[in-house]
Amino acid sequence: MDFRPLLDAIASARRPVFFTGAGVSTLCGIPDFRGPNGVYRDPDAARMFEIALFDEDPSFFYRKADSLVYGNDGTKPGPVHEALAALQRSGLCAGVVTQNIDGLHERAGSSPVFAVHGSAATHHCRTCGDMKTFEEIRAIRGGVPGAVPRCKICGGVYKPDITFFGEALPEAAFDGAVRLASSADLVVVLGSSLTVQPAASIPPLALRAGGRLAIVNRGETPLDRLAFFRADDLAAFARAALAFAAARG
Ligand SMILES: [Zn+2]
Fold first, then answer.
1. DSSP 24-83
2. Domain segments of the chain: what residues?
3. What is the pTM of this model?
């Protein structure tokens, strides 16, 4: 696959924006929560994101989350996360919209990142609202399996700002994503099948404003016919984009 037409479009765009889904995180070993190998096939794992259960027994979530969310198994940003951060350093990324909850774009250095299903990049105390970063929560948990991080101020439990079942989508992130995509002259969809609404309604906003759409995803998406560039191999895109950014300095 020749990614040159896509990379040239990214380089000549005024405001290139990237929209990422589960395919980006599965490249670094995080399961696709909704995909064919997703944890939602395990009914126990699906329950970990129920807000009522979290408030009743937060240890259920934190036991499951050790590897899935907190990377106690060493999960790090993957090739696409690194590629987007490198493009940004070269002035070739105006922002990232992601459906992923793992906070890996933030950890790789992308900014702004609008996580439309919420993110573990920040946590809030359920009782007093105190905020802690991902790294602070990791430090509080101290690598103890299943440890529930508690607030020093009030003794409450910290919950990641991931959107759980039974919670509203994060309005500020969604509004930010809409503004970003509406102002983009190019949206590049990476690793999303564009089937989960309302997130999937975001990339087409660029088309309405006269922008262009490119899609790199294994498998079809409902917007394929609207894309000027379409490819399957996300890992190959990441390699090409990293090399492109490095060559531009
Ligand atoms: Zn508190």
1. HHHTTT---SSSTT-GGGSHHHHHTTBHHHHHH-HHHHHHHHHHHTT-TT-----HHHHH
2. 1-30+76-117+169-249, 31-74+120-162
3. 0.88
CA of 155 to the centre of ligand 1 (A): 6
Instruction: Give Cα 87 to chain centroid, integer Å.
Output: 17
- Kindly report, residue by residue over 65-108, the tens digit of the pLDDT: 887 787 655 678 999 999 999 999 999 999 999 999 888 898 89
Catalytic status, residue 124:
no
**What ranges make up the beta strands (E) of the chain?**
16-20, 95-98, 113-115, 118-125, 131-133, 158-162, 186-190, 212-216, 229-231
In this structure, the strands spanning 118-125 and 113-115 are unpaired
With a cut of 60, say whether residue 38 has pLDDT above it: no
How confident is the model at residue 76, as a pLDDT? 83
> What residues have their beta carbon closer than 5 A to ion ligand 1?
125, 127-128, 130, 151, 153-154, 156
Pick the CATH number of 1-30+76-117+169-249 from 3.40.720.10, 3.30.70.20, 3.30.530.20, 3.40.50.1220: 3.40.50.1220
Distance 43 CA to ligand 1 centre (A): 30
Q: Is residue 182 over pLDDT 90?
A: yes
Task: Spell out the CATH class of 31-74+120-162.
Answer: alpha beta
Q: How does pLDDT run across 187-222, given as a tens digit for each residue?
A: 999 999 999 888 899 999 999 889 999 999 999 999
| Residues sharing a CB contact under 8 Å with residue 91, sequence separation 6 or more, in sequence order | none
Average pLDDT of the chain to the nearest whole number: 90
